[in-house]
Amino acid sequence: MTASKNDFRLRDRRGYQWGLRESLLWSIAMGPAVCLTAILFLLAGCRSRQSVTGPTVEFTKIPPAAQGGRERVDTISGRVTGSRPGQRIVIYAMSGPWWVQPWPDQPFITVQADSTWSATSHLGFKYAAMLVDPGYQPPPTMDVAPTVGGSIAALAIVDGVGKPQIAPTVPIKFSGYDWGVRTIASDRGGQNLPYEGDNAWVDPQGALHLRIKKKENKWSCAEVEMNRSLGYGTYIFTVRDTSHLEPAAVLSLNTFDDWGGEQNYREVDVEMSQWGDGSSKDNAQFGIQPFYVPGNVAPFVEPAGKLTHSFHWEPGRVKFVTVRGDSIREGAPVVAEHVFTSGVPSPGHEKMQLLFYVVASDKYPMQKESEVVLEKFEYLP
């Protein structure tokens, strides 16, 4: 082992710095006992420095920085130093959440004999390569970037190459705002389905139509996203009768921040669905993420007819109200209301999303094409 000029320095009582050679000579002069102690001390220092140096992961080929979707993939490669037998590489790409690559059922990449690794990845704005121990089971998605610890022995995170590429959208105008219609696939609802620009349009009366249609033996869905963030305020949606929706269909009116994983994507939701369970009495809900936290969801029964849904978002509080009719005027018959005061996000880069999609359901799969109509959207600061 070679010591650098900064290694193993000792100081005498007058404050002079001694190097390794001087330290050994001094300890020999002082006698065997001191010499042995010094040698053990130095060896312990070597072992300590070696134990701190663990395995590392690096990238040799990085895909472009781009919004995710099953339509585009690229090669991602790298090498490992100091790996142990049985350890493997797991890749995540960040586009909104962090998504395991290339698929949840194919997450492991073998480290080759020359310590290199290579795989196919869907695109994202950032990429993470993890060296993991045998037995590690990667989650399909993560809200925040992974960290080293436990079964994750080493980690490298990089930005995608080049200027971030955003998937093209179809522009529309609705209720005085500019929106974009999604044109790439999504894993929303537990299955990867196409989203197409012609599944959303505004009629001559100004109402927004969202459609689920069958295409190439898959359900093609609709997503419309506002082009800017609105922040705190009151969000109001007037929607024609959706009580007829099949159990597997979902109409979601929600805020979402692709970069807000640390605050559960700043998602605040009004949703109409039975979530694939035709036996459920509830067919609508108010909620904030994460939905698995008790108290973050308030289900209710949505009646037939036109309804107006609203939520008022302010610091530490969001109040939801659904009423019959086409406005939230005083005296309108209340269908449901709920207030959340815990886990409420603060504004960031969230945008309003209007989604109409299909969830996976073995007992109540989607049977026929469907359409919903939003007559208007209003925002009050």
Detailed description of the structure:
This protein has helices at residues 20-30, 32-52, and strands spanning 10-11, 17-18, 56-61, 64-66, 73-81, 88-94, 98-101, 108-110, 116-122, 126-132, 141-142, 152-159, 161-165, 170-174, 177-181, 200-202, 208-215, 218-220, 222-226, 233-239, 249-256, 268-272, 284-288, 297-300, 307-314, 317-324, 334-340, 351-358, 370-380. The model is unreliable at 1-30, 33-44 and 46-51 (pLDDT under 50). The radius of gyration is 29 Å and the shape is elongated. With 381 residues, it is mainly beta. Helix 1 (20-30) packs antiparallel against helix 2. An eight-stranded antiparallel sheet has the order 14-15-19-28-21-22-23-24, with no helix packed on it. Strands 16, 17, 18, 20, 25, 26, 27 and 29 form an eight-stranded antiparallel sheet that branches. Strands 6, 7, 8, 10, 11 and 12 form a six-stranded antiparallel sheet that branches. 8% of the residues lie in helices and 43% in strands. The longest helix has 21 residues, at 32-52.
Averaged pLDDT, please?
A: 88
Strand adjacency order, main sheet: 14-15-19-28-21-22-23-24
Distance between the termini: 67 Å
Q: Percent range for helical residues?
A: under 10%
Low-confidence stretches: 1-30, 33-44, 46-51
Major sheet attributes: 8 strands, antiparallel
Total helical elements: 2
The count of strands amounts to 29
**Radius of gyration over all CA atoms, rounded:** 29 Å
Structural class estimated from helices and strands: mainly beta
Query: What shape does the CA trace take?
Result: elongated
Task: Name the beta content range.
Answer: 35-45%
